[in-house]
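Extended Data, panel c. Modelled sequence:
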Amino acid sequence: MINIKNILYATDFSSHSNQAYFHAVALAEGHGARLTIVHVCPSRPVVLGEGMLPATGAENQDIEYWKRQLEQIRPVNDGIQVRHVILEGSPAEEIIRYATEQGIDLIVMGTHGRTGLERLLMGSVAEQVVRGAPCSVLVVKMPKRVPVTQPAQQAASELPAAAPAMQGTSLVR
């Protein structure tokens, strides 16, 4: 059996990463693992003349905001040990660094599923983490919406109409 005791769930607070959360919680429950919930705030340098200095002030308020948001993410099961961690820097690099330093057994994260030019320009944090992580990575994507097929639409239109005696009546008294 696979021994998973430390799970890192990385979130950017998108619906894609929320989908991954359910997998992370289920795996933590199933394996009796500790769950570390991580958000990485990209660092934004401030340009002053010729040099670059780390950002301060308003950026610290941003980090405090994201920290409060992160701490609201809690599994319903109180038996799961949870740790909330805010990191700052490049998301992929920080997730990999933290996982390495903390002995994480599994990383769970969502993917936006970008393709083509958008993926080329923006890159994929999930792909970078898969390539550089010291452990297994579960990448969760949103389920595709299945279009209603023509036969299903036709079958729905052929359902019998409500009986005339039932039309306009309520089943609630």
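DSSP finds six helices and seven strands in the chain. This feature is highlighted in the accompanying rendering.
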